[in-house]
Amino acid sequence: MLNLSGKNALVTGIANNRSIAWGIAQQLHKAGANLGITYLPDERGKMEKKVAELVEPLNPSLFLPCNVQNDEQIQSTFETIRDQWGRLDILIHCLAFANKDDLSGGFSQTSRAGFNLALEVSTYSLAQLSGAAKPLMTEGGSIITLTYLGGVRAIPNYNVMGVAKAGLEASVRYLAAELGPQNIRVNAISAGPIRTLASSAVGGILDMIHHVEQVAPLRRTVTQQEVGNTAAFLSSDLASGITGQVLYVDAGYEIMGM
Ligand code: 0WE
């Protein structure tokens, strides 16, 4: 049986009850993990309140602000983990951002600033958080990130995010090679399209979901819970031989040619 009791897991990227990170946090909790949750702080503290209320039933023992564009917040997050937990076992990276303007029209029109922003938040942050987690994963560990097929294929409008995800998947391989000797595994889950806060802001997402429902072998999309179950598996000792991989949780869509 899948058992994460005694394991300390940090989950990033929960924005609301549709977040894939929320599906992951729920499944890690169900498997018995001790949770730390980070949120993206805003000026009015609205996000802090909203995420705190949402995660309360999971009894997180840490609840911390962490904007990956802010080095002090990252440092303070991992200092708190060291002081309060002593050790980290599981790091869940569910962070991405691009300017909305850069998720439509021509990729060749992406600005330098928009390109840098998307890769800083969506790609560099995995290396950054993994580097901070490394000294705390003293008994090995599991690092999991979320990616999307648009990192491997040209998907209309995904544009700069596709480049960011290609870099993210390469980062998974380099991090797996670096951290493997310390028994830290690094993998990505490539989720099929799901209606979330991020995807709902994208024009045409419902048409994409409809297309997946016609074409995917399972004739449906996947749920946050299914992604969460896969993350729980990859976090557990059941996946002790798996590192550097991109695992598709997409109802089979990726294998199809037509
Ligand atoms: O990775 C993603 C979402 C990425 C994303 C979405 C937004 C919308 C709102 C990153 N940044 C922003 N910034 C915003 O201001 N997905 C896999 C979901 C997604 O996003 C798409 C998709 C799919 C699927 C964008 C274009 C086309 C398809």
Keyword list:
binds ligand 0WE; single chain; Rossmann fold; seven-stranded parallel beta sheet; globular; 258 residues; alpha/beta; 14% strand; 8 helices
Account of the 3D structure:
- With 258 residues, this protein is α/β, with parallel strands linked by helices.
- It has a single domain (8-193, 222-248), classed as Rossmann fold (3-Layer(aba) Sandwich), CATH 3.40.50.
- Helices cover 41% and strands 14% of the residues.
- The chain is built from eight helices and seven strands, in the order βαβαβαβαβαβαααβ.
- It has helices at 20-30, 46-55, 71-84, 112-133, 159-179, 197-200, 205-215, 224-235; strands at 8-11, 34-39, 62-65, 90-93, 141-147, 184-191, 246-249.
- The chain has a seven-stranded parallel β-sheet, sandwiched between helices.
- α4 (112-133) packs parallel to α5.
- Ligand 0WE is lined by residues 96-98, 100, 103, 148, 155, 157-158, 161, 193, 198-199, 201-202, 208.
